[in-house]
Amino acid sequence: MTPLEQVPLRRALTDRLRAAVPSASEAVVGTLLWGVAMGGSALTNLLLAAWETPDRIRFVALLYGLGGVLAFPVGLTLARLLSRGRDWETALAAAFVSLVTTTLAFTGGLFALQYRSYYAEWHAPALTLTGSSSSPSRWRLRSTNSSRLACGSIFRRVLRHLSGSASGLRGSGVEHWACLC
Questions:
Q1: Mean pLDDT, residues 134-156 taken together
Q2: C-alpha distances in angstroms, 57 versus 29, 45, 86?
Q3: Phi, psi at 171, each rounded to 5°
Q4: In 14, 26, 86, 175, which residue has its Cα 20 to 30 A from 132's Cα atom?
Q5: Structure letter (DSSP) for residue 166
Q6: Which residues contact 21 (CB under 8 A, 6 or more apart)?
């Protein structure tokens, strides 16, 4: 394509995107309604299931509501782009698919951020090397051996509980089975 042919194409895409973007009032009202609907849906399901504690229920409902708030303008724009100039059935289907997809994506992203921030308390900063820098293979071996030992001690406890006695477990092959964990 020559530069002269690209200009009308770029203009057409820009015009189509401008036409699909919702107005400020549509975005604000729709965002609030969609966020309340998603948060309320999550809250209702979690309360009916008697899930965890009230604090956790509120937190998860808030995450779903915030995911809905963030997803609505993007989902509505995508729906308008997909259904421009088509029948109302197609527009309804495009709106449904677009809103569901963007809501899932934004809510999943918020859950991933919360998951990362929660577990970051016990881990090194992202993209850092841990262990000895001079011999990473030795560090991995120590890590693997310690996990095998932990698995072996759990296995011994289970066998001790099942058999009722601790005698005769050492040297009886428990270490071999523990290494398979």
A1: 47
A2: 25, 10, 41
A3: 80, 5
A4: 175
A5: -
A6: 77, 80
Residue given tokens 């071999």 in the structure block: 176
In order, the DSSP letters of 103-139 are HHHHHHHHHHHHHHHHHGGGSPPTT---S-SS-HHHH
Task: Please report where in the chains the tokens 């921030």 appear, as a residue.
Answer: 117
- pLDDT value at residue 160: 61
Which residue in the block uniquely carries the two structure tokens 């509505």?
76
Can you tell me the distance from the alpha carbon of 47 to that of 60, in angstroms, rounded to the nearest whole number? 11
Q: Return the half-sphere exposure (C-beta side, CA atoms, 13 A cut-off) of residue 144.
A: 8
Structure tokens at 150: 């932990």
Placement of tokens 């994506």 in the chain:
105
Can you tell me the distance from the alpha carbon of 119 to that of 10, in angstroms, rounded to the nearest whole number? 45
Residue 45 reports pLDDT greater than 90: yes
Q: What number of CA atoms fall less than 13 Å from residue 89's CA on the CB side? A: 0
Tallying the residues shown for the chain, one arrives at: 181
Query: What mean pLDDT comes out for the span 48-73?
Result: 93
Contact between 157 and 169 (Cβ < 8 Å)? no
Closest C-alpha to 67, from 94, 40, 105: 105
